[in-house]
Amino acid sequence: MYSRIRREIPASAARSLLGLIPGRSAFVWVVAFSVSLNILLLVVPFYAIEVFDRVISSGSVETLVGLTIIAVIALVFSAAFDTLRSRLLSRFAVRFERSLAPIVLESMIVDATNRGDRAQDLAKVRELRTFLSSATIASLLDAPFLPAFIFILFFLHPWYGLIALVGTAVLLAMGIVSRWIARAEIAQASEAAQKTQITLDGIVRHSALVRAMGWTRGAIREFMDLNDQALSPVVRASERVYAIGAAARMVRTTLQVAAIGAGAWLVLQSEVLAGSLIASSILIARTLQPMEGLISARRALTSAHEAWKQVQTAAAPVLVREKRTLLPSPSGRIAVERVSYRIPTTPRPVLVGINFECPPSGIIVVIGPTGAGKSTLLRLMAGLERPSGGTIRLDDAALNNWDPDQLGQFVGYLPQEVQLLGGTVAEAIAGFDEHACDEDIVAAAILAQAHEMILSLPAGYQTEIGRDGNRLSGGQRQRIGLARAFFGDRKLILLDEPNANLDPDGEHALCSAIQRAKAGGATLVIVTHRPQLLTIADAVLLLRDGAQLAFGSPAEVLRLPVTSVAKPHVVRQGTESQKLAVGRTAR
Ligand SMILES: Nc1ncnc2c1ncn2[C@@H]1O[C@H](COP(=O)(O)OP(=O)(O)OP(=O)(O)O)[C@@H](O)[C@H]1O
């Protein structure tokens, strides 16, 4: 259940997330290629030793040719292994994104909690994909071989080993200092960058409003101010990091010079041969050069680790979700049992003790003053939010016992502010239903009295509605939203102020649409501020300040004197036949 999802993902879930990535066995090959590559890297220094110490002293051209052929073959293999390794890594990275992105996206959809910028969760999966195919991962894979190189240098002469060891330690220390210096600035910059992005999104999304209100210059100034705040710590950090980087390069070159000088001195003292001088300078360069890569790899590794933790948390809702058994198609009986709803930030409950029941094909109209909790009740009934107490049942099964996708097929919901997905009118009605057919789309539009209006649009059902349906009028959006709520085999239809933008004719048409949906077997719960819909209601629910003041037939509820309406009240039930026709207060 979503409410039981732990923010800290359990280890078993983390393991199962890893287990979902195919092709992990490719890593055995990646390691094998890395070992071979690093062994082949030793060919050049050993070639130098052999040429200087054997070929030159013996003057054997055949040996030189033989050694050169062996070295070239080894280098060709090394290039081939390098290519194969990076190809395997990039294919694995793509598989990684393909297997995790759907899980994270599904979690973003099913997890109702508002946990920061959810789009970032998917961005983190992409970040990990880039990391897995980057040069950083290659230098990390090569890192375990650095001690082996230092060991060989010690073997050639302890001085060479010592120079490599000291150089490695100094460069590592410089890397850590550089990261430490940059850390505070980078944190400051990323916070400012986030603010800049939010402001920029607002400006771009509402550009027409910004222009119409004469805010263009102000918006640009605000963006530039925020951008400067984000940039200046980045500039400061990169200046310092660059200075330390330059010092590190100087240290590295100095150590290479020191190694050559020490080698020459050792040759003069006849402690080593000239070949080892060349070999050691190649090996020291090979040991120290990747240090800079490893220092930046440490940074990349830290952010990849952070990204992995975020992806694990993001995927948790789907990974720890209990499997639900698919239930038979409901008849549309709905029961709201002692439902309450609280928001942690507000002391007063939004809803408390809501209790009613409606048989299949009933029409319940919810009325009450502004802020009474009508829309919240509909959101709870649509499964968008979960009650803090009590239960909402569709055909005896609590909403959270339904598989969310299956429940979605049977519940149609028109929110107060219609939110349409972009695309064509037909797509806005059918949503992402894979089995949607034209007949069903047109039938829903006819039922919602939207068919004629849609045909009058430039491309009919294929008219592009723009982002959030912004190329349509408020009334058109509402009609299409209504068609979407009616689309398919809906057993429970929840309409939040469907008549808000309608003229009297439109309202009349809406009433007949609702009655036809009822005749088709749907139960309807409708929030309204206008009296027209009361004429077709089987039952009326009156809310005030989150409490249920009355529930009963329209005649009973409307007959209540204003004074009795002021305190919670449940209308007494009529005859058994009335109960069936009207719906009753849940036990
Ligand atoms: N996410 C939320 N955060 C804080 N308060 C909320 C939230 N959702 C609802 N509320 C509060 O709950 C109360 C009921 O809101 P709701 O939108 O359900 O009322 P309503 O009866 O539909 O009002 P209206 O008729 O104006 O649409 C309001 O006081 C509102 O401020």
Report the sheet with the most strands, covering strand number, pairing sense and barrel closure.
6 strands, mixed
> What is the CATH homology-level superfamily of the domain at 334-415 and 490-582?
P-loop containing nucleotide triphosphate hydrolases
Q: What gap, in angstroms, lies between the N and C termini? A: 26 Å
By helix and strand content, what is the structural category? alpha/beta
Shape: elongated
What spatial order of strands do you see in the largest sheet? 6-7-8-3-9-10
Strand content: 5-15%
From the coordinates shown, what is the CATH architecture of the domain at 334-415 and 490-582? 3-Layer(aba) Sandwich
- What kind of oligomer do you see? single chain
Query: Remind me, CATH topology of the domain at 334-415 and 490-582?
Result: Rossmann fold
Q: What is the percent of helical residues?
A: 55-70%
- Mean pLDDT level: 81
GO cellular component, one term: type I protein secretion system complex
Keywords: ATP-binding, Cell membrane, Hydrolase, Membrane, Nucleotide-binding, Protease, Transmembrane, Transmembrane helix, Transport
Domain ABC transmembrane type-1: 28-303
Membrane topology: Multi-pass membrane protein
